[in-house]
Amino acid sequence: MICTLLSIFSFIYRAMADPRERTFIMVKPDGVQRGLVGKIIKKFEQKGFKLVALRFVWPSEELLKQHYADLSSKPFFPDLLKYMSSGPVVPMVWEGSDVVRTGRVLLGATDPAASAPGTIRGDLCIKVGRNICHGSDAVESAKKEIALWFTEKEVVNWTLANEAWIYEIN
């Protein structure tokens, strides 16, 4: 009975999930330096998500202070800023149904040692301070992060040719 109810709830949730939800994913300097940008993009594309914005940029300390403002009181904040401004990053916007939650699953736990095999962090990194990616943790934070890194004109609205093979479209 419980399994049946969970199945029904899961089906309804998936049917109601917005296929146009967006998330912010950023390959950090260690991921760029290690040549992992393509592997990370590949994971999201293989899942069926659509890339709608991408940049290659060396972020300013001011931009990083805004992005990580919620961590500003943490003792590691100065080191985080130093590390994140040490090289170029690749900020991206991905679109798809339940992409924020699923994107976090694809990335794996913040601590790579706690990440499952098959996840980006579980397969590609070892230490928290070099966990190669940032991913939005909620729809609202994704909206804020996307607006911080991209203008509206830089986020492209387009349709995947194979969308009908990824989503049940009525």
UniProtKB/TrEMBL annotation:
<keyword id="KW-0547">Nucleotide-binding</keyword>
<keyword id="KW-0732">Signal</keyword>
<feature type="signal peptide">
    <location>
        <begin position="1"/>
        <end position="17"/>
    </location>
</feature>
<feature type="binding site">
    <location>
        <position position="104"/>
    </location>
    <ligand>
        <name>ATP</name>
    </ligand>
</feature>
<keyword id="KW-0808">Transferase</keyword>
<comment type="similarity">
    <text>Belongs to the NDK family.</text>
</comment>
<dbReference type="InterPro" id="IPR034907">
    <property type="entry name" value="NDK-like_dom"/>
</dbReference>
<feature type="binding site">
    <location>
        <position position="110"/>
    </location>
    <ligand>
        <name>ATP</name>
    </ligand>
</feature>
<feature type="binding site">
    <location>
        <position position="131"/>
    </location>
    <ligand>
        <name>ATP</name>
    </ligand>
</feature>
<feature type="binding site">
    <location>
        <position position="28"/>
    </location>
    <ligand>
        <name>ATP</name>
    </ligand>
</feature>
<dbReference type="Pfam" id="PF00334">
    <property type="entry name" value="NDK"/>
</dbReference>
<keyword id="KW-0418">Kinase</keyword>
<protein>
    <recommendedName>
        <fullName>Nucleoside diphosphate kinase</fullName>
        <ecNumber>2.7.4.6</ecNumber>
    </recommendedName>
</protein>
<dbReference type="InterPro" id="IPR023005">
    <property type="entry name" value="Nucleoside_diP_kinase_AS"/>
</dbReference>
<feature type="domain" description="Nucleoside diphosphate kinase-like">
    <location>
        <begin position="20"/>
        <end position="157"/>
    </location>
</feature>
<feature type="binding site">
    <location>
        <position position="76"/>
    </location>
    <ligand>
        <name>ATP</name>
    </ligand>
</feature>
<feature type="active site" description="Pros-phosphohistidine intermediate">
    <location>
        <position position="134"/>
    </location>
</feature>
<dbReference type="InterPro" id="IPR036850">
    <property type="entry name" value="NDK-like_dom_sf"/>
</dbReference>
<keyword id="KW-0067">ATP-binding</keyword>
<feature type="binding site">
    <location>
        <position position="121"/>
    </location>
    <ligand>
        <name>ATP</name>
    </ligand>
</feature>
<dbReference type="InterPro" id="IPR001564">
    <property type="entry name" value="Nucleoside_diP_kinase"/>
</dbReference>
